[in-house]
Amino acid sequence: MTERKPRYPKEEFTRRGQEIFDRKIEAVVKDEDPFKFVAIDIETGDFEVDVNRDAAADRLTEKNPDAQIWMRRVGFPVADWIRTRPPGNKPRLRKVSP
Amino acid sequence: MKGKVIAAREAVVPLVLIDDQGGSWEIDCVVDTACTAELTLPPDAIQAIALPWSRSAPAEIAGGRIVECPRYKATLLWNGGRREVEVVELDDEPLIGMALLEEHRLTIDVRDGGDVEIAPLAAR
């Protein structure tokens, strides 16, 4: 198996990935489930969308085994929430008696 | 998969990772139900085990801050077998997230020294 290494500092992954998303992906995926993953090859601009993050990334590496992959969600500029929660639209407070 | 509740009221489960030389590393991980990832590890652990880099993706952490996190591949011993997972590099306690617990039942006896158990759910 090819050993993969990052060719860019992590800040560059953010910058390139977000720029590609804004420029050519957002309009294409806007009707998808906002929690789906978007995997982006930050060198070629190629991308894949999937509910499963590994499935999205694997399709990119099938096309380009050396892909430099950055990920986010369709509707959010992050892939994960850690020690915090994703925004929800269900009200958490319910009155159960008068 | 079994663990214990420690004095800080955290549910801690030791996980074993296998490195590419076949060596094994045990790491005490805190179960975090407010974590969407599979597993997070601090940079020194990732370096010690020499996990292979996979990709990069940001995460939103406590306080609303967004941090860019390199991701690595790791092989865990899990339920008597091996499981490949994505490890998020994060300078925090090692965390077990909800993606690792998918299709499992988490049981926590919430008292000092209480049992923690992660067991697979029956297939639907």
Strands of the widest sheet of chain B, in order across it, are 2-3-8-4-7-6
Query: How many extended strands of chain A?
Result: 4
Mean of residue pLDDT of chain B?
96
Helical content of chain A, roughly?
25-40%
- Tell me the structural class of chain A: alpha+beta
Number of strands of chain B: 10
- Treating each run of at least 4 consecutive H or I residues as one helix, how many helices of chain A? 2
In one word, what is the shape of chain B?
globular
Terminal CA distance of chain A: 64 Å
Commentary on this structure:
The complex is a heterodimer of chains A (98) and B (124). By secondary structure, chain A is of the alpha+beta class. Chain A is built from two helices and four strands. A three-stranded antiparallel β-sheet of chain A has the order 2-1-3, sandwiched between helices. Chain A is elongated and about 65 Å long. The model of chain A has no long low-confidence stretch (mean pLDDT 93). With 124 residues, chain B is mainly β. Chain B contains two helices and ten strands, in the order ββββαββββαββ. Chain B is globular. The A-B interface holds A 3-6, 10-11, 13-14, 17, 39, 53-54, 57, 68-72, 76-86 and B 32, 34-37, 40, 52-64, 66, 68-70, 86, 88, 90, 92, 95, 97. Strand 4 (80-82) of chain A pairs parallel with strand 5 of chain B, so a sheet runs across the interface.
Characteristic key phrases:
heterodimer, A: 98 residues, alpha+beta, 3-stranded antiparallel β-sheet, 4 strands, elongated, B: 124 residues, 6-stranded mixed barrel, 2 helices
